[in-house]
Amino acid sequence: MKTTLALLCVLALGACTWETYQNAQGQTRLRQKYPAGSGIVYTQGAASQNPHYHGLRPEPHVLTPNQK
């Protein structure tokens, strides 16, 4: 049971970094949304360092490896 729960959590978190697209033949495929090694920074909301924004939804911003 614990293994299944852990696996579902990993899959749920990993699903946020994938997107669907249509290839040249019209088939729907999956690809990574961001390059490998990208980080995400939250500027608003609960993940922000500023406590005045905790009532808002966090806004993610991607830092690609060449921006670091």
UniProtKB/TrEMBL annotation:
Lineage: Bacteria, Pseudomonadati, Pseudomonadota, Betaproteobacteria, Neisseriales
Organism whose genome encodes this protein: Conchiformibius steedae DSM 2580
Protein name: Lipoprotein
Keyword annotations from UniProtKB, A to Z: Signal
Signal peptide: 1-24
Residues covered by region (Disordered): 48-68
